[in-house]
# Entry
Amino acid sequence: MKLSSVVSCGLVLLLLTLANVGHAARLKDMVDIEGVRGNPLTGFGLVVGLNGTGDSSAAFTTQSLTMMLERMGISTPQGVKVKNIASVMVTATLPPFARQGGRLDVTLSSLGDAKSLQGGTLILTPLKGADGKIYAVAQGAVSIGGFAAEGASQSVQKNHPTVALVAGGATIEREVAFELNQEYQLQLSLRNPDFTTVTRVVKSINNLFGEPLATARDSGTVQLTIPPSYQGKVVDFVSRLESLQVDPDQTARVVLNERTGTIVMGENVRVSTVALAHGGLSIKITETPQVSQPNAKSKGETVVTPKTEVDAKEKEGKVLEMESGVTLGELVRGLNSIGVTPRDLIAILQTIKASGALQAELEIL
# Structure
């Protein structure tokens, strides 16, 4: 057996072992609190100080440079071209409860035809939210975490030189108003909506506090009333909720990635009674040209006669019968016993699903 097959089988069995062991998860890893989220910020900026690797033909870069210099009282000639400058889109995320004076990491992405942002400096750039208001300003030396170099016939590159990071490069100037301690109700949103899971969450919360504080609105939403003893101290209340252990349920699902041959299956996957045959056909074609050359000083011509050999081999097919209610572990062990590879397993699972014998959702990436 090939090493890759051994590793694949070992990985599958490890995942099966872990899947069969049920563990409760913390509530903080399962839900989000409505209103407690980050907000994306964007801005248009210029990176200067590049070593001839900036934009060469982007008109908006020249226009932005001219406007910036005019605001500084410096006039520029028409059609100026500077390859040491690059236009970039600056993005960041304003975290919840961020306060003025806090620092944010910003990401720079080239907009023009710049070859590299290495060694550049981002000029003061306002970052706006979806409402058009400025929430932060960014400036600082950029870092690409790699390099790019090229010569006449060869080039070398590490990481992506046209995307850079300015660590702590943005300063928060405006806050998003949200007073958590003034709330009388909270709404929890499950990251993976499920009726069974949301019922367990409600039951666990009510058991923890000894009163019916939580109600389920749908499969993904829990309405929560702040008890009188925690009003004005919502942070303490949320802290107790976060550490609550809940056993989540999940839909039986099989996820296939045909590009990489990756297969992920949940523990609740079941297979009805089905008979499976697996075999392979391999065809090998070999071209061997036969060359016949004339004798020396003769007027003959070289003759090339193609010779083709076709060898077709079909592996002996094996039939595997799956009984009704087969578990995930039994399914994979059975398929491994007939020597299937991960890519063969993808085709087999698709066929079983088409026959109606796979009691699970099949998702193909």
Residues 1-21 have pLDDT under 50 and may be disordered. The longest helix spans residues 3-19. The CA atoms of residues 254 and 265 lie 4 Å apart. The first strand starts at residue 25 and ends at 26.
